[in-house]
Description:
The complex is a heterodimer. By secondary structure, chain A is an alpha/beta fold. Chain A has a single domain (2-96, 176-320), classed as P-loop containing nucleotide triphosphate hydrolases (Rossmann fold, 3-Layer(aba) Sandwich), CATH 3.40.50.300. Helix content of chain A is 29%, strand content 25%. The longest helix of chain A is centred in the middle third of the chain and has 18 residues, at 190-207. The mean pLDDT of chain A is 88. Chain B has 13 helices and no strands. Chain B is globular, with a radius of gyration of 23 Å. The A-B interface holds A 62, 65, 67, 91-92, 94-95, 98-99, 101-103, 106-112, 120-121, 124-125, 147, 149-150, 152-154, 156-160, 162, 167, 170, 173-174 and B 1-3, 5, 8-13, 15, 191-193, 195-203, 206, 210-211, 214-215, 217, 297, 301.
Amino acid sequence: xxxxxxxxxxxxxTMHFPIMAGVFRRQVGTVRAVDGIDFNIREGETLGLxxxxxxxxxxxxxxxxxxxxxxxxxxxxxxxxxxxLDGEPLRQMRRRMQMVFQDPQASLxxxxxxxxxxxxxxxxxxxxxxxxxxxxVDALLESVGLEPGFANRYxxxxxxxxxxxxxxxxxxxxxxxxxxxxxPIAALDVSIQAQVVNLLEELQGRLGLTYLFISHDLGMVxxxxxxxxxxxxxxxxxxxxxxxxxxxxxxxxxxxxxxxxPVHDPELEAERERIILRGDVPSPxxxxxxxxxxxxxxLAQPECSTRAPEWRELRPDHRVACHLAE
Amino acid sequence: xxxxxxDNPRTxxxxxxxxxxxxxxxxxxxxxxxxxxTIVLAVFLGPFVHDVDPQYLxxxxxxxxxxxxxxxxxxxxxxxxxxxxxxxxxxxLAVGFAAMFLSLVLGTxxxxxxxxxxxxxxxxxxxTDLFLALPLLPLLLVIIMLFRDTxxxxxxxxxxxxxxxxxxxxxxxxxxxxxIVRGEVLAIKEREFITAARSIGTRERRIVSRHILPNALSPxxxxxxxxxxxxxxxxxxxxxxxxxxxxxxxxxxxxxxxxANFITITPARVLWPGLAISLTVLSVNYIGDGLRDALDPxxxxx
Lengths: 326, 302
């Protein structure tokens, strides 16, 4: 598909956090939050990123946006490596990629009015002065379904869904090409979740946005994403088109995840067979050798604990990291 | 969640209106405002009503009690006590506010830098500890001894000593503010809206001025009100020790110092300046208490 050239290519992205301890704050270990992951996102598509809590999904988002300093790896945005940008070039880069945060309450400054929150990116990038940006702020609020007159209010006067839409308006203020949605619906009521997801889809259609959509709601990801990546313990274990991955999950972890999601059909739900994983996720500061999943995998073979699985393309556009998948 | 919005969404309700609405509910703070404004008004407008020169020596009327011409009596040199309390109050309040402002600026700057820039944290906080560990009163005495005459010659006796006292009080009382602000900044820095600001490309100084400082406002305001009280008391202590303003220049602390020897003859000379200091400190503290509540959005929301 020539028109779907990759917008973002992530290669070997690694994010390690040092563990300091003792009187002299020496480094005693490393949390391997993200441990060498590769994927790319094509222009105009939505890539879903799923995985259980603590597997490194948000760290991936923050490392791509350079809110963290990646330990290693490349992040190429339209061919330009942004993993090592600094200072003013990095600041200019931020105009093109934005983020919608998980907790709309925490990500809005309680002492700023909604108008100044949404207008802040415009001011910071010199796209206008205080009074001149007001129409633009009103238009942004309107585009996310809020009344423009709300610009004078404070975040605490809004409901959770409205606050998340303020967050979306802020992310769109600089007309980015790429938006990372870091669990944008996890903190919202179920009734509000659909609203926000529909808004995101509508904006994508209208503005031609590319999304990285992080969530642990498998149903929602299936609904919104064109392709889905499954993360486990800082690594991507499976990546495929939404259709392919949901119909034929190849990795045992993906299968376990899928089997844990309830189905909206009582008959199918009754037949649903759950694969219960035993044990806990190993600590990312001491990941198991070989395949990271072998400690909990129902199909584990002796080789799984010694040799790391290759990243294989088993089906067209469907990759998996498992020795046993066929 | 409060979603009931007034009919007209254009109505602008500023932060300060919200602050005032909450502040109004704090009885202690309202009484504090009343007492404090009475003191300020009295000190500045009083001399127009009771126009006796506080420096005028009336040797015919020494150590007098309450009378119509001297409502609070006179001292051992026949100076009018009420006029002296008014004059002393202007100086004491001016010293209080100026020294508070200096220590607030110093403390906020040190605290913000230490809290925001990890590399500066260690050195700046050790510096703060150093200042906290210094025995302040002896230090003040040494500074005043060393610099009093130089400043007097440069700015005249009154301005010189005023600047010196404001300076020494300011640079010896910023440490508490610095510690409080640093702690607050450390906590705010980790909040998600700071990450959000960074992700939209907000410059560092704007993150500090637009996001961190307004959210650290509550402890800063409280430090400010406590600082006024602290500065007035320190100035009183210095004057009481005879190291503040020159002897013929009344401040509340100096009046106390001079009056203490005559407490058996004219107790009013100790009573009124002492009461003025206590009431000012107490009312300012109550105002600070009310402001802290009013500036905390979590309390304001309920």
